[in-house]
Amino acid sequence: MGTMPTRESFQFETRGRRLLDGLLDLPDLPGERPAVVVCHGFKGFMEWGFFPYVAERLCEQGMTVIRFNLSGSGMRPGEDWVADPEAFRTATYTKDLAELCEILSAVGDRIAPGRVDPRALGLLGHSRGGGTSILASSVSPGRERLRALVTWSAISTIDRLTDKEIDAWREKGGFPVVNTRTGQKLELGIEVLEDALAHRRELDVVRAAGERAMPWLIVHGDADETVPIVEGERLAGAARSPAEFLEIPDTGHTFGATQPFSGTTHELKEALDATTAWFQKFLV
Q: Which among 51, 95, 182, 263 is least surrounded, fewest beta carbons within 10 Å?
């Protein structure tokens, strides 16, 4: 289409009175447009690496794109450092899911009113955000509102630690996390572990994969060092039709993209081209 997008910031207050920062990429086209909500993953944020580039490319195809920082990211707009370690420490899976569901419910009303076609809403999630997106697609309002889903490098389970690591977490009351990109030393609180254990059924990503009904594109690199491709294969095996699995050879968790973003890669282009085509097919 070749339209020139514009970018606007917004803030969204959740029912739990958490204030989420967000960005809108708006196409230079009149009226209500198909829209895509983007959900980042663990240690990610709405301005990480490829997200601005992805938003621009989708927006150039006539779609409104909604990005936001989950409260548990601890990030502030324009920054590259966790500014709120306490928010990060208490970043539970159920909190992520609740916030994404509230965003989906608000799109076209409290978020981007007049700029979103309510019959043409899609969702793109990466890594843990991919797992959260799958969960959101199987419950209200995602189950009713979403018309297309795409996940990149999505987790298939929230059970990502060994019994030994869980025992150490309980003993110490926290689980250390180092951001290898920035060197920042962070911690996950015991409430994160207790939340995951208490809500295993609600947070069963494979179950949700079989319950969602909207068309789903599953994208995964076969050399993913963070979320092994076997997890993508597990999701594809459990996925209720319609669903397609795109395996991208010789690439890892972020398809070669970095933070700060240094330009696209062949593998990222393949993922984005397939994603754009998917949303064009089912939203536009």
A: 263
